[in-house]
Amino acid sequence: MGDSQHLQGERGGASASRHRTDTTLRVNGKPHQLTLDHRRTLLDVVREDLGLYGAKKGCDHGQCGACTVLVDGRRVNSCLLLAVTLDGSEVTTVEGLTGEGPTGDGEQPHPLQQAFLDRDAFQCGYCTPGQICSAIGALAEAAAGHPSRVTDPRAPSGRAVPLDRDEIRERLSGNLCRCGAYPRIVDAVEDVIA
Amino acid sequence: MKAFDYVRATSVEEACAALAARPGARFLGGGTNLVDLMKLGVEQPVALVDVGRLPLDAVEELPDGSLRVGAMDRNSDLAAHPAVRDRYPALSQALLAGASGQLRNAATTGGNLLQRTRCPYFQDVSKPCNKRVPGSGCGARDGVHHDHAVLGTSDHCIATHPSDMAVALAALDAKVELYGPGGAREVAAAEFHRLPGDHPEQDTEIRPGELITGVVLPAATGGLPSLYRKARDRASYAFALASVAAMLQVTDGVVERAGIAFGALAHRPWRARVAEEALVGAAPTAAAFERAVDLELSAARPLRDNAYKVPLARSLALDVLTRLAEPART
Amino acid sequence: MVSTVVGAPVERREGLEKVTGSARYAAEHAPPRRVWAWPVPATVARGTVTAVDTAAAMEQPGVLTVLTHRNAPRLAEPDDATLAVLQNPRVPHRGWFVALVVAETLEDARAGAAAVQVSYEPEEHDVSLTMTHPGAYVPEEANGGYPAATEQGDPERAFASSAVQVDADYRVPPLHNHPMEPHASTAQWDGDRLLVHTSSQGSTAVQTVLAGLFRLPEDGVTVVAEHVGGGFGSKGTPRPDVVLAAMAARQTGRPVTLALPRRHMPAVVGHRAPTLHRVRLGAEPDGRLTSLIHEVTTHTSRIKEFTEQAAVPARTMYAAAHLRTVHRVAPLDVPSPSWMRAPGEAPGMYALESAMDELACALGMDPVELRIVNEPETEPHSGKPFSSRHLVECLREGARRFDWAHRAPRTAGPLRIGTGVAAAMYPVLVQPSTASAGACPDGTFLVRINATDIGTGSRTVLAQIAADALGVPLERVRTEVGRSDLPSASLAGGSSGTASWGWAVHEACTRLTARLATHTGPLPPDGLDAHADTAGQADADSPWARHAFGAHFAEVAVDTVTGEVRARRLLGVFAAGHILNARTARSQFVGGMTMGLGMALTEGSTMDAAFGDFTQSDLASYHVPAHADVPDIEVHWIDEDDPHLNPMGSKGIGEIGIVGTAAAIGNAVHHATGTRYRELPLTPDRVRRGAGF
């Protein structure tokens, strides 16, 4: 298999061809050409077509955040995005965050992944990839000057927003965790800001 | 979800033509509500016309001082836009009070306006709902209606409109730009959503085949003090139990202009014109605010389990109006 | 036992897999030719299926089959009636599965399910629980095998003649477990052998149940639950997903995955039943209780008797000479309730600890002191001595850390701020398990046990226990858990996992150490191993009353504009034997308290009287706490040296965190506002209505 693979987005499904479209996605840096059932969400593409099960299906309706990935650098709920609409987009899942180790001989966790380990910022682990992708997106948003509900309205527009614990909590509120790891997640995010 | 055709439009005209050519088709913006409803079987389009990449994502200051927001501008970008934050703070606050960071990154301005009620009976295709299936009945009226409307309801529907953003747009005298088979037109944001009446299946004044192309925030309300406040069951990532957007212009100790709208009380953002009329020309005192808000809310007709919304909305409105008046008084 | 690594804050062994996304959960095992199933829930609250029209569904592209009660494989009758899926046309409640569509893709399966037409003969239904429901009765046992009713002395008379009285009703609504991973199973058959990956708190039980239902020898069924995305009781026993997946795989000859849609879960995975409480406390002017009466009314389904044992904690907590506890249960046309984190204790202690706060107010007494005054010498109900009980120490230590002595309600702008306290308790439960320990020629040790890691860190803590029992460094111990072909073990439930599994692991390692001590020369190529079975030991009757205790302190702010209540500070101090892993234990305590915060402030479900289902069926309407709801949570523990527990000296910690949290928060809201609320959750509508602002 080369850099680019062509997959049938739905195996065996007998939908008419007008209900499928050829689509190219770059996922974690690799291009994939897929023939997609229009109904297929980005979440189901990365999980079932590409075998990237890091993005989780918690609710399938944008109500839990477990499916959070980055599309063109922005965090989104992949369960609500029809993959066919993303032709040409760059998708990053939790699997795409790890880097080469210093010796180039293995995967090195992203600093935020390491902070989650250091802080025990998870228990069952099911919301964890979404929390991590969401936090990475949130940090970029704050750096770009995006305010949140708890940002002081008098803060100047267009400048990076410093993130205290209340800011982190508000910005990550789209990621539910039933194990209740929230305070530890905030600790982990603070670690990578510091 | 049934299989459907998919077309990506590259211009507004092409989008409208594509929709017209496919009866039963729907426009797709950010998809955060439409895809959700398609999974539930509530929406069953035969085709989607993807308007998400139309060049309608700009926020431009127009020569007359108004601010034009493209329909495809994402909620997070709109909330962060310096002109919005500085000149229409209630709009930025309303956007940031809604949904989650992920949803705001996908949801569009136009789609936010067109999102549908979260009434549990509407969302469950196994239950009666006049909005989803006209004539099938309303499960909520005698059912679980804790979150439902207290103003402007009809025998057929007591649903609320779920948007936070739309409440701010209504208070700020924004206009909604539409384009369709009949050409381009504008509708006041406060009039864009309908009351349910005999046709709860129609959420808005949009005509068949029309596309929202943008929203215009007028120069007249730019820079006026405005606020949005929302009460909810969870500190974040929850729909409003009640909310209020208000702007207030006080000149020489007298209210010169007021814009007040309630969210989660009605089938549309509830522009409180009665309260506004009572306030204009009056001194911005606590007594004046109470009188005005009580006049407005006297029209409320709560049901068994949602009467709490009336005093809650009153409390929110008085809090916001008082805070808006403070700099003017001091 | 010489402790070296037990107690240390050791990092989770599977942590790297979880943060990098490589940990595989049940629906993420994709054998070749795997297909998808999607259930069809009943749309009547009670009745009979008269016809299932599958023609339109079968015409959908990709649909392979539609299972109904007419064509589904016949199962042996299960002990748990909720697993008798597609066996007959009866509909015991709305949301009961009446068909299952199997298709090539997820999208095809969902579309197929939407196309199935089911006709019913509906019947009148009743889903509304009241305290005086005519159908309510006192069952023989409440959940956990406790007697449903107990009485000592003459509680009514003692109450009537007591100097100070509290007589209050409390209501806890239905609650949903909602683990982040929905119930999911992937099933595949190889001839008459069944392999299942499922999301379960105990795959040994799943193996036993599936073998029974499909009439297979137990060793013909392998159940794997390697990573489990939470359960909180709802995955304690098999749920319909695993049975349906196995049926569908048998019928189609293809591996099948069934992951329950989130909205289907409230009806079929169990819920915490609503509880209606009446608590009566009679006390002397010095605070000493003379009478304690806790009466609970709850619901169950028509097909399964499950009685939330909410009055049981009152049998243990306080010294009251006259004591009555009783449960009544009304079978209704509702989904079957089941375990949710601390069933019984969580709602029961909300009521009892709220009533204690009311009593303290009535007496003008500090609520911490009131509890201390009523500390019993022996367990009030059984008369047994406590193996260890450090409730008073938890209260005192918590009060010190929280600066309780200086508590005073205060106002900050529109906010009213107050503090509250409540006690916590959870029984020590332990189950027999088996384990093996092996010494390998390469110098490592392998511990094998079908424990389950639902997020508690059981792999890690069992390795710690083994390392100490073997006297070897932790790095040399490997653990295998989460497969039914490992030595059988009990489930991760009742806060019993670590005690039960750890006991067996400790025993196996002790035996292995003895074997190694007598072994001379190099190890044979297969190594040496030892096996342990704690049956007869772990489940032996104890002459001791064994419970963990704790104390919660909460500070809340009530916004007088909105009625919104936010927790500002939570502190929990627990006494739960020896803590075996300080890192993962802290996470469990904090997690339990977070769920308790949800119970107090945000979580509540409504049974729709007309339709017979839970209105809050998704995660947008059922509000589990979000990040913004949860303040910094402080947790401490008092180490107990209790020789009457197990070789590790540990008590369970998975559930006690949720017990009492809601009462502490509710008591803080009373302190802040002066208004006593007796129904959860404390949402703005309720708070504003009660407080009159």
From TrEMBL, chain A:
<protein>
    <submittedName>
        <fullName>2Fe-2S iron-sulfur cluster-binding protein</fullName>
    </submittedName>
</protein>
<dbReference type="InterPro" id="IPR036884">
    <property type="entry name" value="2Fe-2S-bd_dom_sf"/>
</dbReference>
<dbReference type="InterPro" id="IPR012675">
    <property type="entry name" value="Beta-grasp_dom_sf"/>
</dbReference>
<dbReference type="InterPro" id="IPR036010">
    <property type="entry name" value="2Fe-2S_ferredoxin-like_sf"/>
</dbReference>
<dbReference type="Pfam" id="PF00111">
    <property type="entry name" value="Fer2"/>
</dbReference>
<dbReference type="InterPro" id="IPR002888">
    <property type="entry name" value="2Fe-2S-bd"/>
</dbReference>
<keyword id="KW-0560">Oxidoreductase</keyword>
<feature type="domain" description="2Fe-2S ferredoxin-type">
    <location>
        <begin position="21"/>
        <end position="97"/>
    </location>
</feature>
<dbReference type="InterPro" id="IPR001041">
    <property type="entry name" value="2Fe-2S_ferredoxin-type"/>
</dbReference>
<dbReference type="InterPro" id="IPR052914">
    <property type="entry name" value="Aldehyde_Oxdr_Iron-Sulfur"/>
</dbReference>
<feature type="region of interest" description="Disordered">
    <location>
        <begin position="1"/>
        <end position="32"/>
    </location>
</feature>
<keyword id="KW-0479">Metal-binding</keyword>
<dbReference type="Pfam" id="PF01799">
    <property type="entry name" value="Fer2_2"/>
</dbReference>
<keyword id="KW-0408">Iron</keyword>
<dbReference type="InterPro" id="IPR006058">
    <property type="entry name" value="2Fe2S_fd_BS"/>
</dbReference>
TrEMBL record, chain B:
<dbReference type="InterPro" id="IPR002346">
    <property type="entry name" value="Mopterin_DH_FAD-bd"/>
</dbReference>
<feature type="domain" description="FAD-binding PCMH-type">
    <location>
        <begin position="1"/>
        <end position="222"/>
    </location>
</feature>
<dbReference type="InterPro" id="IPR036318">
    <property type="entry name" value="FAD-bd_PCMH-like_sf"/>
</dbReference>
<dbReference type="InterPro" id="IPR016166">
    <property type="entry name" value="FAD-bd_PCMH"/>
</dbReference>
<dbReference type="InterPro" id="IPR016167">
    <property type="entry name" value="FAD-bd_PCMH_sub1"/>
</dbReference>
<dbReference type="InterPro" id="IPR051312">
    <property type="entry name" value="Diverse_Substr_Oxidored"/>
</dbReference>
<protein>
    <submittedName>
        <fullName>Xanthine dehydrogenase family protein subunit M</fullName>
    </submittedName>
</protein>
<dbReference type="Pfam" id="PF00941">
    <property type="entry name" value="FAD_binding_5"/>
</dbReference>
<dbReference type="InterPro" id="IPR016169">
    <property type="entry name" value="FAD-bd_PCMH_sub2"/>
</dbReference>
<dbReference type="InterPro" id="IPR005107">
    <property type="entry name" value="CO_DH_flav_C"/>
</dbReference>
<keyword id="KW-0560">Oxidoreductase</keyword>
<dbReference type="InterPro" id="IPR036683">
    <property type="entry name" value="CO_DH_flav_C_dom_sf"/>
</dbReference>
<dbReference type="Pfam" id="PF03450">
    <property type="entry name" value="CO_deh_flav_C"/>
</dbReference>
Automatic annotation (TrEMBL), chain C:
<protein>
    <submittedName>
        <fullName>Xanthine dehydrogenase family protein molybdopterin-binding subunit</fullName>
    </submittedName>
</protein>
<dbReference type="InterPro" id="IPR036856">
    <property type="entry name" value="Ald_Oxase/Xan_DH_a/b_sf"/>
</dbReference>
<keyword id="KW-0560">Oxidoreductase</keyword>
<dbReference type="InterPro" id="IPR008274">
    <property type="entry name" value="AldOxase/xan_DH_MoCoBD1"/>
</dbReference>
<dbReference type="InterPro" id="IPR000674">
    <property type="entry name" value="Ald_Oxase/Xan_DH_a/b"/>
</dbReference>
<dbReference type="InterPro" id="IPR046867">
    <property type="entry name" value="AldOxase/xan_DH_MoCoBD2"/>
</dbReference>
<feature type="domain" description="Aldehyde oxidase/xanthine dehydrogenase a/b hammerhead">
    <location>
        <begin position="20"/>
        <end position="124"/>
    </location>
</feature>
<dbReference type="Pfam" id="PF01315">
    <property type="entry name" value="Ald_Xan_dh_C"/>
</dbReference>
<dbReference type="InterPro" id="IPR037165">
    <property type="entry name" value="AldOxase/xan_DH_Mopterin-bd_sf"/>
</dbReference>
<keyword id="KW-0500">Molybdenum</keyword>
<dbReference type="Pfam" id="PF02738">
    <property type="entry name" value="MoCoBD_1"/>
</dbReference>
<dbReference type="Pfam" id="PF20256">
    <property type="entry name" value="MoCoBD_2"/>
</dbReference>
<dbReference type="InterPro" id="IPR016208">
    <property type="entry name" value="Ald_Oxase/xanthine_DH-like"/>
</dbReference>
